[in-house]
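Q: My labmate handed me this sequence with no annotations at all. I'd like to see what the chain might look like in three dimensions before we decide whether it's worth expressing. Could you predict it?
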Amino acid sequence: MANKNRVLGIRRGSNQVRLEGEQTIPEQQPELNNGKEERPLTIEDIVKPGKFGVTNSQMIPAIKQVIADGSVEKLRMLRSIYLYSFENSLRYLKKSEREFIQNNLK
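A: Here is what I predict for the chain of 106 residues:
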């Protein structure tokens, strides 16, 4: 028994998929902002491990960026993934940044 919804073909560079016995279905496109894709930052985008892994030199700017964005969820993720570096980097932050972390991670 043949599959009823077999894919007939996808053209390279095309945003459409055609199924057998179906009309052309356009794929959903991400929202564009002046021609650029707008996607949320991931932890991998924020923290780039160096030669010796994730150290204070990578963690401090990452924490500052997440605080500037106000993303408590990403702050929790940073802390859970890089606990040692996160805790040791806190002493190099401004008092207001440390207070933000203290108030939001409890």
